[in-house]
Amino acid sequence: MAWTCSNLHPSHKIPYSLASSLFISKVSHAFSKSFTTSFPSPSTTHTSIKSKSPTLSVSATGGTFTWDDVVRISQPESLPDDSSDLTGFFEKIRICNRGSEKQSEFLPFAIEDQIVGYIHNGFASHLRKFQDVFVFPQDSSCGGHVTFHPMLSTPEDRTSAVGDVVKRLGEELIPGIRNELFPVTSSFGAPVFFSLERAAAPYFGIKAYGVHMNGYVERDGQKLLWIGKRSQEKATYPGMLDHLVAGGLPHGIACGENLVKECEEEAGIPRSIANKAIPVGAVSYMDIDGYRYKRDVLFCYDLKLPESFRPENQDGEVDSFKLIPVTHVANVIRRTQFYKPNCSLVIIDFLVRHGYMSPEYIGYLDLLQSLRSGDCS
């Protein structure tokens, strides 16, 4: 494999499970005769559904569908029973795991003999201008990798130098700068080599971690999920459906504490309730799109909420909330592109863990495996 660097730590030479990638492609191909869908950009949604049941088409530009659209499409009677058809779920996983065939276009980014990221050859051409920050291989032969200039030997020095590079490259190359730093490590819990602007993370191919929480209510023996609809002012996926609470994991804060913070900011959930959220695992994915190489791990949480609780957004990032039966939420994911893509993975995981899918469903084990298609480390 062209990325292998003989002097790099062996546990970090292969960033992504090729077996998982091939598996997703195989499953998608197997179902393609009965299901087709168009894929949304971060700001545009268009869904066309062709399944074993009669065709249902839904279009929405910029996430401008309404809650009435969501409720109508979620109803079991809106299409013949498709509850055992996992096709739509596989499609959502495939959307989050694009571009594995383009891995050869990226150079490993290494620090202290550890691979921490991957940089596209095209983006690297812009970084080559900063010779006092980055060192590039003399050629693209096997073993070449990008690293820091030897003078940048401390996390603080690297953070400052890369921050200046990101600022000078500007919004044209790295849109959506948030002034929020993500830690750069070889794996979760490993030493932090430096901190990087969140918007720049996929351009350096670093592992990014987040927390996603399914908040649910039990009523008359039925589970219902609180669903958020993102603000139309959001820079990414405006107006699309989201979890009750979710957020990236910035530098210097633990997962549990970050979740409590996000609970307050996004849904007005007090600490006394948020502290009861249960960590239930993680999902991961790998997505290559142009210069961007997203290697994300999402820590999943469940929180059972009182029936009387009503979420209230505090930071302006969520337009509104709605409480929807879990089976209806499954239909929305299966039949539409209304959800922010990575949220679908976390909810699919919820459906599996809470018994809404059966081992008898075709592709059940493959679906479980594919929820961790990225480098989950």
Looking at this protein, list some descriptive labels:
7-stranded mixed β-sheet, 15 strands, globular, two-stranded antiparallel sheet, 11 helices, disordered N terminus, alpha+beta, 25% strand, 377 residues
Can you lay out the helices and strands and say which pair or pack?
Layout (H helix, E strand, L loop, with lengths): L17 H14 L13 E5 L6 E5 L6 H8 L12 H10 L9 E6 L2 E7 H7 L6 E2 L11 E2 L6 H19 L7 E4 L9 E4 L3 H4 L2 E13 L2 E9 L10 E2 L2 E4 L6 H13 L3 H4 L3 E12 L2 E13 L13 E8 H10 L5 H13 L10 H7 L7
Parallel strand pairs: 9-14
Antiparallel strand pairs: 1-2, 3-4, 5-6, 7-8, 9-10, 9-12, 10-11, 10-15, 13-14
Q: Find the structural class using helix and strand composition.
A: alpha+beta
Shape estimate: globular
> How far apart are the first and last residues' alpha carbons, in Å?
21 Å
SSE string: HEEHHEEHEEHEEHEEEEHHEEEHHH
Helix content estimate: 25-40%
Low-pLDDT residue spans: 1-7, 9-62
Q: What is the helix tally? A: 11
Overall pLDDT, averaged?
Answer: 85
- Major beta sheet summary: 7 strands, mixed
Question: How many E-type strands?
Answer: 15
Structure description:
This protein is α+β, with helices and mostly antiparallel strands and 377 residues long. The chain is 29% helix and 25% strand. It contains 11 helices and 15 strands. It has helices spanning 18-31, 67-74, 87-96, 121-127, 155-173, 201-204, 255-267, 271-274, 326-335, 341-353, 364-370; strands at residues 45-49, 56-60, 106-111, 114-120, 134-135, 147-148, 181-184, 194-197, 207-219, 222-230, 241-242, 245-248, 278-289, 292-304, 318-325. Strands 9, 10, 11, 12, 13, 14 and 15 form a 7-stranded mixed sheet that branches. A two-stranded antiparallel sheet has the order 1-2. It has a two-stranded antiparallel sheet with strand order 3-4. A hairpin with a 6-residue loop joins strand 1 (45-49) and strand 2. Helix 1 (18-31) packs across helix 3 (87-96). The longest helix is centred in the middle third of the chain and has 19 residues, at 155-173. It is globular and about 65 Å long. The model is unreliable at 1-7 and 9-62 (pLDDT under 50).
